[in-house]
Every structure is written in structure tokens, then in C-alpha cells.
Amino acid sequence: MRAVFAVLLSATILTSGAHAAAPTAAASADAALELAKKAIALRSVKGPGNQTPQVAALYKAALVAGGFADADVEIVPVDDTAYLIGTWRGSDPTLKPMVISGHMDVVEAKPADWKRDPFTPVVENGYLYGRGATDMKLDGTIAITALTDLRRSGYKPKRTIVIEFSGDEETAMKTSTLIAERLKDANIVLNVDGGGGVLDEATGKPKYWTWNGAEKTYADFRLTVTNPGGHSSMPRPVNAIVELSKALEKVGAYQFKPELSPLTREALTKAAPFEEPAIGAALKAFVADPTDKAAIATLTAKPATIGKIGTTCVPTLVNGGHAENALPQRATANINCRIFPGHKPADIMAELGRVIADPSVTIADVSEGSVANDASPMRPDFITAITRAMGQVYPGVPVFPAMASGASDSMWFRSHHVASYGASPTFIKPSDDFSHGLDERTPIATIEPGIRYYKLLFTDLSK
Q1: Which family does the entry's similarity section mention (predicted)?
Q2: Same domain, 275 and 168
């Protein structure tokens, strides 16, 4: 069927004489898959042998082959990595640009742990396997292919379109910061590393699709208790490890005030029908009354939902003492927080201080690679465009917003007050989501509709 469709579509294009250079849907999907395979084969991991610059060169070649001028695609080396910015100038220079955002680096993967080599792309049983298949080399190549398809078709954007890829999103985010600073005058950012659809586990059919309009702020706080110490045979009334343990117990038992934002109100309301009955009922009750104790108890008891209704802070690292036969002179612990949009890390740190209520415990913000950011606005132009594009490609599939618990490049744009939205068209079963994990994979059936979706969305927001 696919070959027949490609032949028929090609014949139609040649007969009409319009947009003769535009590739068929099948050819575009194949091109995106092949580009993704080449990118996956490059080990773009921080450290010795980092091949992120080679991924940038690969992406630049694809953009130039697709109609971008060589001078309009810039690769900037940064330490052992690099970032890429490609510019397609619109006809109206007074309009702020639309930015398509992604990243080229991936999380480390040890071949000995995988069934397949993580940096040898393989297509099996309808899935693309390899590190980056889900996060996010395939998403990146789908976006590149959609954009170059538009150029080949003769489309002329009114608003300038910028496509950029950071080179250390999974680690220090230094390139992410630099890109956001350069593009802080953007009108809107479409982050292809966020959002996405869910496939039904039994049928494999699309259940719903979410766009990401907010993410929680990442923060690390270090608790420290010091003591003169001494010989372990002569215990003192105050022990640094004991005092730290008391503080950690208080933190572990504390629950931040549950809350709603305009985005999470809609997100929880629309998500409720897709949850198990008890969770769905609790979500509806919480939206109706954010102080509902029974609903809060149900939602906080489940790891998948506790983070959706407020800030969370948990101990993640503990270190104390210096010898088996000595009283501890120092004990430290790391508290990792995911902060609900609208709150500053300093305010959360102060709240933790009040919870611990012990002057012998000092608290310091030791966060790296993070910045506080609020939710992006519920922009009608974006919501209309995203709903229309998804509706044409996946008719009848519910579309609603979501808030991410992890960090992405969107936070750097939001810190400059630029609206950024996760907008990936990839659909996947929850049981197949192995981002950052072993045997990462994504169904290749998501490629062709993803390209169509991006072309509709990019056109709608740049015309």
C-alpha cells in the first residue's frame, strides 16, 4: 500500500506541474528515518570522544540539501560539544521569529547492558532501536525533514523560522543557555523535545496527545551539620549524624501545599477520564476543591500523580562521618526538589528551613544547570494551531496540555519570558518508553504523520 500511495502521489505531482521538487510522504518518512539512524550511530555523549559536533554537521548537511543557504546554518563549538542555529528568513522582518528547538546530545549508554548496541541503529518489528530513538534524535530528524519539505514545496514564511539544536541538554545545559540568550527576542518556541501522544497498550491506537506548557523547576539543596567530633568511646549529647537524621525525617514527612494553575486545572480535568477510576475521581475532586483531603491523599499516594499537584522535595544523597571509631564532624544530605511553577527556589529553601527548625542544620542552594521559570501562557494562537494540526493528522484524538516534572531547554527560554511549548508528534505506548533506559525504541509508524503534523503547525504559526 505504501509503495502504491507513493507512486500515485508522485504521478499527481508530476502531472500538475506544481511543487515538482516536493518529496512524497513515503520518501520523506524514509529520509527522516535514515537521517535518524545516521545520528544515532554518532555517540553524542559528554566527555572523551563526544560526537555531538558531528551530529551538528550531519544536521547542517540535511538542512543545506533541503534549501537552506550554507551561511544560514551556523555551528558553534562549545567545549567538547557544539550547538546549531539555522535561519529561514521570513518576508516580514518586523515579526519576531518562530523557533523550533531540540537537542543533539544523548544520555550515556553502556553496550554491555543492552541487548543491541546502543549506537548501532536497528529497525525491528516496526521499531527504531538505539540511544536517541526516543530522546530525541528521531524527533529532531522528523522536524528537519518537515521543514526542508516546506522549503522544497515553495512555501514562503512571513515570519522568520529558526531551527536550533543544543549540544548538552542532558548535562550542563551550557549551550542551551547560550541559545536562549541569542534568541530571547523570539515570538514563540516549539520544543520538539516535549509533549507527545499515548498509544493504547492493547490496541496500539492513539488514546490522547498532550502539549507541554510548563515544567517544574529543578533544585538541589544541601543540608549540613557540623560538630567538633571526638572519640567514639565518649559520646556527646549532640551527634551530627543524629541531628541530620532528625532533619531528614521532618523533610520526608512534609507535604507542600497542593495547588492548581490555569494549565494544570485543564490538564488534570482532561486527563481524568484516562486514569484508573479512583485516580480519575480524585483528579476531578481536586480540581473542584484543591483542599479536598481525600482527593489529596489519593493523589499523593501515587508516584505518578503526586508531582502534578504541587512541589515535591526528597532526600537523595547522604554522607557523614570520617572514621568508624570517631564521632562525626560533618554530615551532609542532598534534598532534590521539583518546584511547582510560580515559586522561586529561595522561597522553597526558606520553607524547608522552617520545617527543619534546627539552627544547627544549615541549608544551601547547590543547584546547577537550572533556572526558575513560570508556565508559558495559554496562548490562543498556539492552542488553535496545535489543535488544528493534530486534528487533521489524528482526527478525534483528544488534545490537552500537560506539565512536565523534568527539565528541558524550554526553561531557558521561559526565563527570558519567551513562551515555549513541548510539541512533539511522537506517539508511544507507556510500556515502550525507555528514554534514558535500556533498549530505547520508538515505533517508526509515528514518522510519516509526524512530518505532516509539523508542516501544518510550522505553516500555521509562520504565515
Answers
A1: Belongs to the peptidase M20A family.
A2: no
Task: Give the pLDDT score at 1.
Answer: 36
Q: Quick one: cell of 449?
A: 504523520
- Same domain, residue pair 163 and 38: yes
Do 37 and 181 belong together in one domain? yes
- Last residue of a domain, which of 237, 272, 304? 304
Q: Model pTM? A: 0.90
User: Nearest to residue 345, comparing CAs of 363, 371, 315?
Assistant: 371
Pairing between β-strand 196-199 and β-strand 427-428 as defined by DSSP bridges = parallel
| Residue 451 belongs to domain spanning | 19-194+408-462
* Residue 96, domain CATH: 3.40.630.10
DSSP letter for 431, please.
Answer: G
Query: What angle in degrees, to the nearest 10, is found between the helix axes of 25-40 and 2-16?
Result: 120
Q: Do 36 and 139 belong together in one domain?
A: yes
> How would you list the strands of the sheet with 122-124, edge to edge?
122-124, 127-129, 441-443
Residue 307 has pLDDT above 90, yes or no: yes
226 in a domain, yes or no?
no
Residue 5 has pLDDT above 50, yes or no: no
DSSP for 320-339 reads: E-S-TTEE-SEEEEEEEEEE
In a domain, 440, yes or no: yes
Q: Pairing relation of β-strands 161-166 and 98-103?
A: parallel
**H-helix segments, 301-378:** 303-306, 345-356
CA geometry: angle at 117 spanning 111 and 120, to 5°? Answer: 140
